[in-house]
Each structure stands twice: as structure tokens, then as C-alpha cells.
Amino acid sequence: MTATDSHEGTGRLAGKVAVITGAGSGIGRAAALLFAAEGAAVGVLDRDGAVAEETTAMVTAAGGRALALTADVSKAAQVTQAADAVAAEFGGIDVVYNNAGVDSRGSVAVAEEADWDRCFDVNVKGTYLMTQAALAHMGPGGSIINQGSVAALVGVMNFAAYCAAKGAVVALTRSMAVDLAGRGVRANVICPGTVYTPLMEPMLRARGDGDLDLGLQRTLVKYPIGRLGDVADIARVALFLASDEAAFMTGSVVAADGGMTAQ
Ligand SMILES: NC(=O)c1ccc[n+]([C@@H]2O[C@H](COP(=O)([O-])OP(=O)(O)OC[C@H]3O[C@@H](n4cnc5c(N)ncnc54)[C@H](O)[C@@H]3O)[C@@H](O)[C@H]2O)c1
């Protein structure tokens, strides 16, 4: 399945309302389509309003319910307004998929301060702000899904700020799990391996010394399963964590990486 394939839902998220950040592209768009096909009403949030509208139109065309939201997850007022709009439209929030993320440039020896701050603002602060805003509308049975990365688990060359920020997302998830269990809300983090999306293209190109195909080859050898991930591979894991099937899972760090971190 790719992001645009149709999916015959079986109602695994029937009656639920989900907010997905960074849902205008890549993994977030695939998740929006999958969650909606499984019966959720979806708040499609992206800082780029045009791509949020595109995803929303795709969901609607497939017979689902979605609301496009333009917001930067690192800005508290924008995030609060978006969460309030979803709750007003669909009557609450059950699931938050904190998927919006940005990469970073360079090893710790050369990483630039502005790039470091941007990476933490979006990946870490955005996860905190979106979760806080959604919790105001979330009751027992709620599920928070955070987007980590294999970069939280192993060192990825020339990705210092990204590794650190995704490590912080894993730690924040454990903190959320402990703090929110009493109100019946679960929190888990997915650590995807490399999925070919616009986000990863600069990294893959750099790894191939400017040659994208070479970068892909050099990446592939790290994957015992013999392929890189697809957006749907990650969206399906998010679907499971969002659903009541994962009712006993909280604080889990779920690698979805074709065995990359197993070796
Ligand atoms: N692609 C991979 O290989 C991979 C691997 C591990 C983890 N991840 C993580 O998965 C998530 C999604 O990655 P992707 O590859 O689908 O990326 P992508 O670049 O295709 O999509 C990311 C989306 O997030 C949006 N976004 C960025 N900053 C935002 C902000 N401040 N507020 C709101 N929206 C914002 C972008 O506009 C874009 O639409 C990220 O957190 C990324 O770090 C990706």
C-alpha cells in the first residue's frame, strides 16, 4: 500500500477523532488516509496549509471525514487554536499522532545553533505543545503516538541535533506514559527506520556524496530486511497504537525499522 492507495477499512478507529501533525506529506498523509479509512474523523494539521488541504481533499474523496488545519506545532497559540477547532468540529479528541518533524545538518562539531534550535522546536517542543492542547479535549481511552526515529536509538552520522531531539521525544513519551496513565491516556513512540520521503532526500543524497542512488544503496545495506520502509509501514503501526487493540501498551518504544537497530 502506498499513501494514495485505497484501503478497505474495518472500523478499527470507528467513533474516534484523531489529530495528525505534519499530515500534509509523507508518513503523516499516509496515516491520515488510513485512520480515516478505519473510521476516524481526522484533523489534518500542517504548517503548510496547501498540503493540509490536499490531504483533506484526498480523505474526503475516499469517503472519510477530515478538517484541514494550518499551524506550526512549535507555536503554542496556533496549536491550541487547531486543537480547539478539531474538538468543536468533531466533539473531542481521542488520538494525537505527533508526526511533524524536521531533520538537521551536521555532526556536533559543526552543527549550527539555529538549526539545533529549529530541530528541537519542531520535534520536541511541538510534541509537548500539541499533546498539551489536545489533552484539554481528551478523556479516558485516549492515545498519544509520538514520532521518534532510529536516530533516537543509534548514532546516525552528521545528524547530531536530530538524534538528540528524537532521543528527547523517546524520553518525553515515557514521561507522558507515567503521568497520563491515571487519566486513562496511553502514550507510545514509534522509531521508524529510513522511509523514502521528501524529508529524507537531502540525507540520502549527502550519504551518496551527492548521488541519490548511491546514497540509497549505502543506506540499504543497513537494513537486514532488504528494503527501506514505506510510508504505509509506519502508518499501520500508528493505526495499531491508536486503536483499542493496543490497550495494554503505554510507554513502549516501537522500532519499525526492518531490523536496522537489531544488529
Ligand atoms: N522518512 C523517514 O525516513 C523517517 C524516519 C524516521 C522518522 N521520521 C519522522 O517521521 C516524521 C514524518 O516524516 P516524513 O518523512 O513523513 O516527512 P515529510 O517531510 O514528508 O513530512 C513532514 C510534514 O511535516 C510538516 N511540518 C514540518 N514542520 C512543521 C511544523 N513546525 N508544524 C507543522 N507541520 C510541520 C511539513 O510541512 C511536512 O508536510 C518526522 O517526525 C520524521 O522525523 C521519518
Provide structural commentary.
This protein is of the alpha/beta class. It folds into two domains: 17-193 and 230-254, Rossmann fold; 195-228, no CATH class. It has eight helices and seven strands, in the order βαβαβαβαβαβαααβ. The chain has helices at 26-37, 49-61, 76-90, 113-135, 160-180, 201-207, 212-220, 231-242; strands at residues 17-21, 41-46, 65-70, 95-98, 143-147, 186-192, 253-256. Strands 3-2-1-4-5-6-7 form a seven-stranded parallel sheet, sandwiched between helices. Helix 3 (76-90) runs parallel beside helix 4 and helix 6 (201-207) crosses helix 7. The chain is globular. The structure holds nicotinamide-adenine-dinucleotide (NAD). It comes from Longivirga aurantiaca. Its EC number is 1.1.1.-. Residues 16-196 form the Ketoreductase domain.
Describe the structure concisely:
With about 260 residues, the chain is an alpha/beta fold. It has 8 helices and 7 strands; from the N terminus they run E-H-E-H-E-H-E-H-E-H-E-H-H-H-E.
Shape: globular
End-to-end gap: 27 Å
Largest sheet, strands/sense/barrel: 7 strands, parallel
Second rung of CATH, namely the architecture of the largest domain: 3-Layer(aba) Sandwich
What is the radius of gyration computed over CA atoms, rounded to a whole number of angstroms?
17 Å
The helix count comes to 8
| Number of separate structural domains | 2
* pLDDT < 50 runs, ≥5 residues: none
Total strands: the figure is 7
Task: Give a list of the ligands.
Answer: nicotinamide-adenine-dinucleotide
Listing every helix as H and every strand as E from the N terminus to the C terminus, the arrangement reads EHEHEHEHEHEHHHE
Structural class: alpha/beta
Within the largest sheet, what's the order of strands? 3-2-1-4-5-6-7
Instruction: Give the oligomeric state of the chains in this entry, treating copies of one chain as homo and distinct chains as hetero.
Output: single chain
Q: CATH top level of the largest domain?
A: Alpha Beta
Organism: Longivirga aurantiaca
InterPro entries: KR_dom, NAD(P)-bd_dom_sf, Sc_DH/Rdtase_CS, SDR_fam
EC number: 1.1.1.-
Keywords: Oxidoreductase
